[in-house]
Amino acid sequence: MSRALVLEEKGKLSIREIDVPDRLGPADVRIEIDTVGICGSDVHYFTHGRIGPFVVEAPMVLGHEAAGTVVDVGADVKDLKPGDRVCMEPGIPDMTSRASKLGKYNVDPAVTFWATPPVHGCLTSRVVHPAAFTYRLPDNVSFAEGAMVEPFAIGLQAAAQARIRPGDIAYVIGAGPIGIMTALAALAGGCARVFIADLSETKLKIAERYDNVIGIRAGSENPAEVIAEATGAWGVDILFECSGAPAVFRDLFRPVRPGGCVVFVGMPVEPVQIDIVTAQAKELRMETVFRYANVFDRALDIMASGRVDLKPLITGSYSFEDAIAAFERAAAQNPEDVKLQITMG
Ligand code: ZN
Q: Nearest-5° angle of CA 44, CA 45, CA 48?
């Protein structure tokens, strides 16, 4: 039994003891959880009880963005030892699957992912996890930053899919947590500057605290015109769609230069219409992102180098006893909040 934050059913959270799998296999480690970030998906399960085909049908422990300390290792584990500070990749694929053999283990149909029904998440005191998906934190990366690796990994996956060339100019639509992480990953990946559009002045102000991030006020400015003016009517090299907002898709390809790239990161709830001919006329390359593969170690190296500082994005921290209050605040979607975290203490 383990103390955990349990989503009993849609709209109902409790902190209680629950039976979670804790058998330590030879290739596993046991981790005492220190910090867990609240993700939009956790909040969505709380408020809606489902995401697409994934429906909460039994009590489920929430949380998938975690850092902690190794307390026990399986017999075959060589690279980790008790006392190591770590963060964890929440998706566990079948390592023998065809997708895994291709290096694309994130799209393995058999992947299990923390806090995706029916799999329990990590908002609990201890978890057992494969050592292969557990990463040691550099000394200068805190637990709080370690719990930011998971959302930053999505940005890095988007940057990798874009195949950035040094000096590219990027445009990110949506200044939510993933939009900001994607902008920072694009800069780390070699972009010279990144435009970012949103309706929320508050979110843009947070994004603009970073050098070479230029906000576009989508409520009062025409983003396509701003981009045209800034690029001499040529367009941006890369567009990252991070909003999932249906309204942006119709004219999505206009601000992209001929031969440029569009990366779909945001997930519209319903199917959307896109203008294929505009994309064809420019021979745009299109890429998609589903979670991430092979980027956690890179994320940690970038953070340790000091080139990306995610600490300003942590806008609230709660003790585990106040975890329900943290979720209620997250569900209120205050534009000043980028990432709320819970410390298990
Ligand atoms: Zn997440």
A: 70
